[in-house]
Specification:
Glutaredoxin, alpha/beta, 15% strand
């Protein structure tokens, strides 16, 4: 548990710039999780006032510099609204090949990129999305998550949290690159992570010190991106209510097409 707390504390120091690529969409649902508030609550509970920081001044400088450089290098990450979503086929947690195009043949897709099961903010997002899977299905859509971690790590996550949606492993980073979210973790930050017993290669595979900028894309059946959120600050994620609002908009468009 001490190791976990150290890893979680480490994540608070890396930040970037807000880059919401689409305006926030309204939703009146009262039973939809407020992810931003859940993240704020988690941070407040995790921080211990008066306790010395486990990080040296040099560690903090490395983390802050890495965050700043990432934000500078990727000021506008992710595909844009109106872009065609690149097709792909990736293994799920059970080793089965899953195709985005096959999913889009029958319904819109909410495509979510996350860093890995080691990231508490990713887990908060996954759990929030788990709660709205019924609403996503009511809108005739499906949810797919993509991560650089190995399928066995995803399987542990699926079994532990009973996640009812596909988690796919981007083992060669091609999909992260295609969606303009890929970045390589700097060597000095890798060493800081390792000091707190977080070795990304244990999750992603040998030599793979790579991550996606967390991003979410709502993709219509024609494979066109209709809503996007991507941010180099990993603590900022697309709100479930905004995802549902985007799907509701797509459902309204479909109804209008049928009526005509």
């Amino acid at each position: 548990m001490a190791i976990c707390r150290n890893i979680f504390s480490l994540l608070f120091f890396i930040s970037g710039c807000l880059n919401c690529l689409t305006p926030a969409l309204a939703s009146n649902a009262t039973d939809v999780p407020d992810l931003a508030k859940e993240i704020e609550r988690y941070q407040a509970q995790s921080q211990q006032p008066g306790k010395p920081s486990p990080f040296s001044k040099q560690d903090m400088e490395v983390m802050q510099r890495s965050a700043q450089e990432l934000a500078k290098h990727m000021p506008d990450p992710g595909l844009k609204v109106g872009d065609k979503a690149p097709s792909f086929t990736l293994p799920n947690a059970f080793g089965k090949q899953v195709s985005l195009q096959t999913a889009l043949d029958s319904r819109p897709v909410v495509l979510m990129f996350y860093r890995g099961s080691w990231c508490p903010f990713c887990n908060l997002q996954l759990h929030a999305m788990q709660k709205v899977v019924p609403q996503i299905k009511q809108h005739g859509a499906s949810l797919i998550a993509v991560t650089p971690q190995r399928p066995d790590k995803s399987l542990e996550q699926v079994k532990k949290s009973k996640l009812p949606f596909e988690i796919l492993s981007d083992l060669d980073s091609k999909v992260m690159k295609a969606y303009k979210l890929y970045f390589e973790v700097p060597p000095d930050l890798i060493e800081v992570y390792k000091k707190f017993e977080l070795d990304l290669a244990d999750y992603n595979g040998s030599g793979r010190y790579v991550l996606p900028v967390p991003g979410t894309f709502v993709i219509d059946r024609q494979g066109v991106v209709r809503a996007v959120f991507a941010d180099t600050d990993y603590k900022k994620r697309m709100e479930p209510r905004d995802i549902l609002a985007a799907l509701e908009f797509l459902s309204g468009e479909k109804t209008q097409q049928v009526s005509h």
